[in-house]
Amino acid sequence: MYFTVDASPDAKSGRMEVQMKSIPALSREGWSQNSIAIGDQVVVEAHPGTGGRNYVILISMQKKGKPYPKNS
After folding, report:
1. Are the C-beta atoms of 6 and 18 separated by less than 8 Å?
2. What is the Cα–Cα distance from 13 to 16, expressed in whole angstroms?
3. I need a labelling partner for 49 at 20 to 30 A (CA). Which of 16, 18, 56, 70 fits?
4. Contact of 15 with 7, CB cutoff 8 Å
5. How confident is the model at residue 72 (pLDDT cuts 50, 70, 90)?
6. pTM value?
7. Cα gap 44→1, rounded to integer Å
8. How far is CA 36 from the centre of its chain?
9. Is 10 helix (H, G, I), strand (E, B) or coil?
10. How many C-beta atoms surround the C-beta of residue 19 within 10 A?
11. CA atoms within 13 A on the CB side of 33
12. pLDDT tier at 20, thresholds 50, 70, 90
């Protein structure tokens, strides 16, 4: 599963795709189809992708200043 983020203005990366785990694995961790909405501000910690694409692999995420999902 992927979602797209626009990096903060001071970052040089611009728009990034964030790669996540499979849907069943995310569901077990507390994610749902409503976990992230367009316009939500999140902080993503991620490994850089390879192959020249503008993507990263999610390590962890914060939403409203707290780890998300709550049981991560």
Report:
1. no
2. 7
3. 70
4. yes
5. low
6. 0.75
7. 15
8. 9
9. coil
10. 16
11. 0
12. very high
